[in-house]
Automatic annotation (TrEMBL):
The protein's required cofactors: heme
Similarity comment: Belongs to the cytochrome P450 family.
Name listed for the protein in its UniProt record: Cytochrome P450
Keyword vocabulary terms for this entry: Heme, Iron, Metal-binding, Monooxygenase, Oxidoreductase
Residues the entry annotates as binding heme: C418
Any single Pfam family the record assigns to this protein: p450
Stored InterPro entries: Cyt_P450 (IPR001128), Cyt_P450_CS (IPR017972), Cyt_P450_E_grp-I (IPR002401), Cyt_P450_sf (IPR036396), Plant_Cytochrome_P450_Monoox (IPR050651)
GO molecular function: heme binding; iron ion binding; monooxygenase activity; oxidoreductase activity, acting on paired donors, with incorporation or reduction of molecular oxygen
Length: 481
């Protein structure tokens, strides 16, 4: 048991202290107590894994017994009572939903079919930014663009910008803020989870805020679902153009009773799956793009190498195409190194042991213990990485995905790893390449260094805005409007 345990609450303060970063705090405890240790969260026990060797053993040899999720307040209130497949318990429902989501939205075939959606939104981003040495808040712009892409894929509409179905600005901002609130609270361990008998107190009003956000998001989803039903009715039972997006396909499948889940309302299944995809896809992609630009601005030598590769492989007479990405090996290394230093989720989503387990040659873990894998600590382990806290994309040159072992797991590992990994990497590579190719970027202020302060939460969002000076670096006609 790690030191610092307090009466009754145990180590809960590690997750509730103002502005504390749990992955850093747990990493410091690992330096003191070793690569695996137990903490007490009220009445619950959790084991924290901080080494790639133990992570490999767990996710390879014991993955089945760590494939369920604990029943937490946030996942109940914000995840449709754990119907949202990302937080559903391991079992038949979770398996079928994950399989369906991959087939209908996240497979390589589907990613390729949706190429035009991504390309058009990236072009809109470039056109919105275009101007001579203008100061831009890139965190917001990346977030808006990514949300547009995910929204078009999932529900067939964009939220921000002109041309092509953008909704009212106020509604768009409310939806965007609610989604970000969702992720803020999904990463929160509230008092009820640790000490259920004190749950009525709702210290900090977090449960009240969760219920408000859940109600607001459900209102948006209800509206989008009704739009799909109207379009489907107008087009006949065969559906129509609206069913090219995920919500439409899901509606047709559920209405057609091609598969049934006892105890789950079909509309709740549809809404929860769509919300899962929108929130996860938007937040994690935005986080990675924001950190990548921040790191490049603070490492000018790496930025210059990225520009040189883009000019050599793409030239300056046309925009970047997705077909260019395989040739941009240094840019891909930049993305991998960003994900190593700033994984979108520095701590794995909590899991729960469904039976007793022994790892590491004798460390006994009782059934019911929660598992927390410190991805950030593993990916900055000096035993696996030379100068682990330095930004060095060169370390990934010549190393393929198959050559990266358990010391690199930014999307998790095992059965519950992120199903959108291929899409997420593809999206970040494409947007980063297009943005850097189109614009010269500088820090705001000659001697300024970009603030790299992280914020606590389920995703590792940059705590402050990313203000960047941008200027076109291509001939005017390449921007196309």
């Amino acid at each position: 048991m790690a030191g610092g345990r307090r009466p009754i609450i145990g180590h809960l303060g590690l997750f509730t202290a103002h502005n504390s970063l749990p992955h850093v705090t747990l990493g410091a405890l690992a330096d003191k107590h070793g690569p695996i240790f137990t903490i007490q969260l009220g009445i619950h026990r959790a084991v924290v894994v901080n080494s790639w060797e133990l992570a490999k053993e767990l996710y390879s040899d014991h993955d089945l017994i760590i494939s369920t999720r604990p029943n937490l307040t946030a996942t109940r209130l914000l995840g449709y009572d754990m119907v949202m497949f990302g937080f559903a318990p391991h079992g038949g429902y979770w398996r079928e939903m994950r399989k369906f989501v991959i087939l209908e939205l996240l497979s390589h075939r589907k990613i390729e079919l949706l190429r035009d959606v991504r390309a058009s939104e990236v072009a809109c981003l470039v056109n919105e930014i275009n101007g001579l040495w203008k100061e831009k808040n890139m965190k917001r712009l990346f977030g808006d663009m990514t949300l547009n892409v995910i929204m078009r894929m999932v529900v067939g509409k964009r939220l921000f910008g002109r041309g092509g179905g953008g909704v009212e600005e106020e509604e768009a901002r409310r939806c965007s803020e609610a989604i970000r609130g969702l992720f803020h609270y999904l990463g929160m361990f509230v008092l009820r989870d640790a000490l259920p008998f004190l749950g009525w107190m709702d210290v900090g009003g977090h449960e009240k805020a969760m219920k408000r956000i859940a109600e607001e998001l459900d209102g948006f989803l209800d509206g989008w679902l009704e739009e799909h039903r109207r379009k489907r009715g107008a087009a006949g039972d065969g559906g129509g153009e609206g069913e090219q997006d995920f919500m439409g396909v899901m509606l047709a499948v559920l209405d057609g009773a091609k598969f049934e889940f006892e105890g789950h309302d079909p509309d709740v299944i549809n809404k929860s799956a769509c919300l899962n995809l929108i929130a996860r896809g938007t937040d994690t992609t935005t986080v990675t793009l924001t950190w990548a630009i921040s790191l490049l601005l603070n490492n000018n030598d790496v930025l210059l190498k990225a520009y040189q590769e883009l000019d050599k492989q793409v030239g300056t007479q046309r925009p970047v195409n997705e077909s260019d990405i395989p040739n941009l090996t240094y840019l891909q290394a930049i993305v991998k190194e960003t994900l190593r230093l700033y994984p979108a989720a520095p701590l794995s989503g909590p899991r729960e042991f469904t039976s007793d387990c022994v790892v590491g040659g004798g460390y006994h873990i009782p059934k019911g213990t929660q598992l927390i894998t410190n991805i950030w600590k593993i990916q900055t382990d000096p035993r696996a990485w030379t100068e682990p806290l330095e930004f060095r994309p060169e370390r990934f040159l010549g190393r393929t995905g198959g050559g990266l072992g358990s010391e690199y797991m930014p999307f998790g590992s095992g059965r519950r790893s992120c199903p959108g990994m291929a899409f997420g990497i593809h999206m970040v590579n494409s947007v980063l390449a297009s943005f850097l190719h189109a614009f010269e970027i500088r820090r705001v202020g000659d001697d300024a260094v970009v603030d790299m302060t992280e914020s606590p939460g389920l995703t590792n969002m940059k705590a402050t805005p990313l203000e960047v000076l941008v200027s076109p670096r291509l001939p005017l006609e390449v921007y196309g409007g």
